[in-house]
């Protein structure tokens, strides 16, 4: 078995990728165009976020003392991801909690409000 760039992939790596794809398929709505971009990429490449503890992408609200540190770390992981924008769009569309595509819940809330306001201005 080989990856897209013909680098040999071990059976363990293939199994891990398969598990990740199945997990993503259950998390992401297949009708979302942004979700399809993320899933298509994940079929052939390992997402950087899959290699770190998922707790870094989720905090226990503003009271979490490690919130800023966790999200700064997670945003660094997302910064170089080629599907970052699609991941953020999916989270924006589906009102996801946590940090997705380098965006925080607050940033996505503000973007939703901006889009809603823009739609009202057009109408």
UniProtKB/TrEMBL annotation:
Its cofactor is [4Fe-4S] cluster. InterPro entries: 4FE4S_WBL, Whib. Residues 113-123 have a biased composition (Basic residues). PROSITE patterns: 4FE4S_WBL. Keywords: 4Fe-4S, Disulfide bond, DNA-binding, Iron, Iron-sulfur, Metal-binding, Transcription, Transcription regulation. Residues 48-110 form the 4Fe-4S Wbl-type domain. Residues 97-123 are annotated as: Disordered. The keyword Transcription regulation applies. It is found in: Cytoplasm. Its main location: cytoplasm. PANTHER family: TRANSCRIPTIONAL REGULATOR WHID-RELATED. Belongs to the WhiB family. This is WhiB family transcriptional regulator. It comes from Actinomycetospora termitidis.
